[in-house]
Amino acid sequence: MLLVVGLDGASYDLCEQWIEQGYLPNLARMKQEGMLLPLKSTIPSVSPVAWSTFMTGMNPGEHGVFGFFVPERHRAYEPPMCFRPVNSRDCRGERFWEKMNKAGLSTGIVGVPVTYPVQPLDGHMVAGLLAPGLSTPGATYPPGLGAEIIAKVGPYRLVPRGIYTPGREQVLMRELHSCLELRGRLAQYLLENYRCDVHVFVLYETDVVQHKMWRFMDSSHPRYNSSAGKKWGTAIRDIYTHADSIVGRLLRQLGQDDSIVVMSDHGGGPLHGIVHLNSWLRRRGYLVERGGWQRWLVGLNGKWGFVQGCARIAGLLGLLSGIRMRQETRRALASGFLGAKNIDWGRSTAYNLGFEGAIYTLGENHSAIAQEIAEALRCLRAPGSGQALVESVHTAQDLYRGRSVEYAPSLILQLAGGKYSTSQKMFAPQLVTTPTDSGTHTPTGILGVWGPGTAAMGARRNFDIQMIPDLLLDIVGIGGSQK
Ligand SMILES: [Zn+2]
Asked: Which CATH class is domain 2-58+93-270+440-482?
């Protein structure tokens, strides 16, 4: 049997440090008796893109997943009809478990992002991030598995519940530990009752805790505060230790011929600010809102926080539901991003989508516009430091190869020191604001292998996530010509 444990966002440098200090005894054992190496993520290093590469061994230009959201359109460089979360149908290319199934091996795939809606397979599947919920059709294969999990394992959830707000650290941490515990229990249950040749389990809490709790352990973070740091400074480490204990429980069940791979899709690091690229594009005339009553909102430009606050309170009181308002508009009010229907696409030539700095340009002149925007972006400075806010600007053609390249964002940005992310907001009061989150992604994750499968790594030491499917196929002995 081959067991693959994904620790979303687990960072190589944090693992090294905490292995050294004795907080991750099971990863330490893997390192000592097997191999533990850094693993290079995709560009951008965000979960949907990286996990799609993990499944297919393809670069984003080939599998076609470029971020959390998809602009729905008929042709590249056309205005989108709507924006929606990415799903498994957007990811093109054969998954490694399909190859394993063809070779006669059964596979159990649990918690991998962008697997919703799930496809039938020889084995079982439970969707991960970007699925609506465990009981939604398409969340599990076989379809009855969701109800069985609830009955036999407990209140398993695909992603942690609730929205974190500062001051509610305890609620968040309780939820994260409880989710992790349930993931460990589900792994146990499936290994006992639905044994396959290959099992994949992804634990997602390692990523969430870094986004929310980074500032408490990092004294160089602009929002660090020493008394809160004393209280919550070990929050991230505690989640890593918990995840490590789940790895340990699984390790102890392996037989002599079994192998385990522990990997992550990217690492974690500090987040210092949010860059409101749509706001910037709007001020420069690349993005134009549609007329109508939305103009009223535009008039409140500087007071956008106030408008959002009102919308949130009204939403909480259930008032918005009573007003005859289109779903799209209500969502836009909540997010600050005027949806695709509220943009004057006839006059717009560029927009930012997602958190990772992806700019789509439109029309016949899309490439000239992209170039013009790239030059202007290079002049932006981070507040305070005077450092370049946009460290580098890539075109899709620079980074990617394959049949989906023209559907990629025209520009993919790397923001100062990786410490900034971007927002959807059209009406931000400043170019850069301070977010609630204090952590974001870094490009270096981990790859650990233990057991006879370690031999499949050969002499290679520089792994990137695109090599994972081949490595897994090698470990189960169907590499080479059968790939
Ligand atoms: Zn991730």
From this structure: alpha beta
Please give the mean pLDDT across all residues of the chain. 90
Provide, rounded to the nearest whole percent, the portion of the chain with pLDDT above 70: 89
Distance 47 CA to ligand 1 centre (A): 4
CA 114 – ligand 1 centroid, Å? 11
Euclidean distance between CA atoms 116 and 112, whole angstroms:
9
In contact, 56 and 469? CB cutoff 8 Å: yes
Half-sphere exposure of residue 166: CA atoms within 13 angstroms, side-chain side? 12
Residues of the chain with CATH 3.40.720.10: 2-58+93-270+440-482
CA of 113 to the centre of ligand 1 (A): 8
Burial class (CB in 10 A: 0-12, 13-18, 19+), 223: middle
Provide the whole-model pTM: 0.90
Q: Give residue 383's pLDDT.
A: 79
State the Cα–Cα distance between residues 475 and 451, nearest whole angstrom.
10
Does 337 have pLDDT greater than 60? no
CA-to-CA dists, residue 158 to 176, 206, 207, 258, angstroms? 12, 14, 14, 27
